[in-house]
Specification:
Layout (H helix, E strand, L loop, with lengths): L1 E5 L14 E5 L6 H4 L4 E4 L7 H4 L6 E4 L9 H7 L2 E3 L6 H19 L7 E5 L3 H13 L2 E5 L1 H7 L10 H4 L5 E4 L17 H5 L6 E4 L8 H10 L3 E4 L10 H6 L2 E2 L8 H19 L22 H11 L2 H10 L4 H7 L8
Parallel strand pairs: 1-2, 1-3, 3-4, 4-5, 6-7, 6-8, 8-9, 9-10, 10-11
């Protein structure tokens, strides 16, 4: 059995070697010749798994150690009988703590304290649910928009769920936590366009730690440059060639590392390993890194305690300055980023 794996997936080296031949490569550099004889791929978002890559291969299974699947042509995989597994939810608490650091900064810089701030959460899945729960506990007024959940669960304004067009004009902070989808009634590609940005309160903050392509890039640049809205961005259009206009003016700008906690990365790798093991009958279906500190231990935390402690755990201002000074190092910083420790 042969596995081709992204060499930047942490904790993976040595796991499959007793059972398979493993080739580790840079994710963006994996080419058709590399996967011709592979049975399985273990990838991140930097590997575009489509017919161009896989058309002449014998790949039967793809495991992504990331939450999304927009880097995988699911229709092609379905036609070819290639199984696909993602690590959805693995980094939710890492993103929560990135969000917490951003909220603390917004209070300090813009006066957006919980008692007088309305937070709009778009997409209330693994990450959005956590953001909602913690933000409510911190005293924010929280409004949500998630049409698939609303239909499935009968949620409405009584539970704080509103249509997006009704939610946006009310919020001081609009935070995106949806997957990237390009078709269907609930497609999120360019969900945030000129019309939506124009309906924000002047000076509201748009937060994107989901996928860059959810936001129409020129519309965002125009809104930020004009001062119509502020921005806190972790996921960008056209990474790593990010928009320098938005970068220069962003309140928060990080190189797609919102979910980069040690615990989240361990879980993502474990979920990918377990998926491959289950598919091929290998004795790793319960595998997890042996280091006990890599297990998440969720806890409640007050707003004041979070503000007092978050900078020592994650200095989001320093990370922003680093990217603003050296945008050309986006990919370098992302791959070499020292994983944060989750603490709530």
């Amino acid at each position: 059995m042969k596995i081709v794996a992204d060499c930047d997936i942490p904790y993976l080296a040595g796991v499959f070697e007793p059972y398979a031949s493993v080739c580790y490569l840079k994710g963006a550099s994996i080419a058709p010749a590399d996967v011709e004889e592979a049975d399985a791929l273990i990838v991140r978002t930097r590997t575009h798994c489509n017919e161009a890559l896989l058309g002449d291969s014998k790949v039967r299974f793809i495991a992504s150690a990331t939450i999304g699947s927009d880097h995988i042509d699911l229709e092609f995989c379905r036609r070819r009988g290639i199984g696909v597994a993602t690590s959805i939810g693995c980094n939710a608490r890492g993103v929560l703590q990135w969000m917490a650091a951003s909220l603390a900064l917004f209070e300090e810089r813009f006066g957006l304290s919980p008692a007088r701030t309305t937070l709009g959460v778009v997409g209330v899945g693994h990450v959005g649910r956590l953001v909602r729960v913690y933000a409510l506990s911190w005293g924010f007024r929280v409004l949500c928009s998630d049409p698939p959940r609303e239909r499935a669960e009968g949620l409405d304004a009584g539970e704080g769920f509103l249509p997006l067009t009704e939610l946006v004009p009310q919020v001081d902070i609009l935070t995106l936590h949806t997957p990237l989808t390009r078709s269907g009634d609930d497609a999120t590609f360019h969900l945030v366009d000129r019309d939506l940005l124009a309906s924000l309160k002047p000076g509201a903050v748009l937060v994107d730690a989901a996928r860059g392509e959810i936001v129409e890039p020129e519309a965002l640049a125009e809104a930020v440059v004009s001062g119509r809205c502020r921005a806190a961005i972790d996921t960008w259009n056209d990474e790593p060639s990010i928009d320098r206009r938005v970068l220069a003016r962003a309140a928060v700008a990080t190189p797609h590392i919102a979910g980069y906690s040690a615990q989240g990365k361990a879980m993502g790798t474990a979920m990918a390993v377990q998926a491959v093991a289950t598919r091929f009958g290998l004795p790793l279906a319960d595998w997890f890194p042996s280091d006990p500190t890599l297990r998440s231990h969720p806890a409640a935390i007050s707003w004041e305690e979070m503000k007092r402690t978050i900078r020592s755990r994650f200095d989001i201002e320093a990370e922003t300055r680093l990217l603003q000074r050296h945008p050309e190092r986006f990919e370098e910083r992302r791959n070499a980023y020292p994983y944060r420790q989750e603490y709530f």
